[in-house]
Amino acid sequence: MDGNGRWAIERGLSRAAGHRAGVEAVRRVVEAAPAHGIATLTLYAFSAANWSRPAGEVRELLGLLRDYLCSQTAQCVARGVRLSVIGRRDRLPPTLRGAIVAAETATAGGRTLHLRLALDYSARESILRAAQCAAKSAPHDPPLTAAAFERLIAEAEGSSTPVAPVDLLIRSGGEQRLSDFLLWESAYAELTFTAAMWPDFTADHLEAAVREFRGRDRRFGGLPKRAAS
Ligand code: FPP
Q1: In this structure, what is the dihedral angle of CA atoms 163, 167, 172, 174, given to the nearest 10 degrees?
Q2: Does residue 26 line the site of ligand 1, with CB under 6 A?
Q3: How far, in Å, is the centroid of ligand 1 from the Cα of 219?
Q4: Per-residue model confidence (pLDDT) at position 25
Q5: What is the pTM of this model?
Q6: Among 227, 201, 214, 223, which Cα is nearest to 25's?
Q7: CA dihedral sign of residues 43, 203, 40, 98
Q8: Centre of ligand 1 from the C-alpha of residue 19, in Å
Q9: 27 near 200, Cβ under 8 Å?
Q10: Which of 45, 172, 177, 190 could be joined to 198 by an S-S link, Cβ 3.0–4.6 Å?
Q11: 212: helix, strand or coil
Q12: Cβ distance 73 to 107 under 8 Å?
């Protein structure tokens, strides 16, 4: 969800105002996602690297996330949205940790959409922790499989079970990089990039990305469909 800061600066506003406008875009996308057949949506809301931002901006972002969880939980329950958070929790303020647990508990029965917020998240850290955990296994344990390693990554991310691999990754704000987001899970993800700044991202941008995704020939290392038949 890149571009909040630039969107705000272009309008002579504070970066905090850009993040607030970004929350509106989050609401639009969460509402639109199920109609596009999206079952799991992971939003990169705060990376482990974002701690390096000025303390005021960090405070604003974490406050917005807490307010979002508190204000949206009832609506998530009504719409069948299951909310969960991946990433480290030990460095988050206690009020935010409390809001996460309350939102996860209240929405646990949601089946329409699994909305995951990545907070204090680093894909490399999760993979490293999974590898450290695997390295502790006894020499006579069965060889580690990809499925077992995925379970270790999920545990390292703080989720109870692994989710399906990422199909489509969308980055707004004109940058074309992954920034330590779901690196293992995105092994065969289709990548789309839009110049739109995140606060300008609408349901139409989501639809355009899904349309582009559906037009892609996903070969997973195999042959193009026509050549294979
Ligand atoms: C990157 O844009 C965006 C973030 C670091 C924060 C994303 C947060 C939100 C969209 C709001 C809260 C989210 C939820 C789920 C309620 P940037 O600030 O780096 O933008 P820039 O590249 O233009 O400076």
Answers
A1: 130
A2: yes
A3: 33
A4: 98
A5: 0.95
A6: 201
A7: positive
A8: 6
A9: no
A10: 172
A11: helix
A12: yes
